[in-house]
Amino acid sequence: MNIDFIMQVKTYRDKYNQDRLPENIFLYRIFSKLESKQSIKNKDYVIYFIGDQVYANYNTKTKDFYYDYDKIYLILDTEFGLNRQKITVLIQDMVDEYLKLGVVTPYIEWSIAVE
């Protein structure tokens, strides 16, 4: 048997199973629907929203990504039992995969300003 092929199958299976975790599905449902717009008050910020609900904002200069405590962090903590470190890693992965922002610093924001 080809060991490289076996390792590729294992990596694919692990990634597939990880993508199907409930917390990843929850975040996918948010991040795949986010729309963005430039902040009117501060041109360094991009606001991410679904409908009229703001979920996050991103500082393009500092590469800080602020996500909503109530809509994201609290649910990952209470419903899925994730600790802050795991949540930070998941947010970074989602930001990279769906928003294509590269490496950012995720921060919890208790009240995200719309503008």
If you had to describe this structure to a student in words, what would you say it looks like?
With 115 residues, the protein is α+β, with helices and mostly antiparallel strands. The chain has one domain. 46% of the residues lie in helices and 23% in strands. It contains four helices and five strands. A five-stranded mixed beta sheet has the order 1-2-3-4-5. Helix 2 (22-31) packs across helix 4. The termini are far apart. The relative contact order is 0.16.
What would you say about this model in short?
This protein is α+β, with helices and mostly antiparallel strands and 115 residues long. It contains 4 helices and 5 strands; from the N terminus they run ααββββααβ.
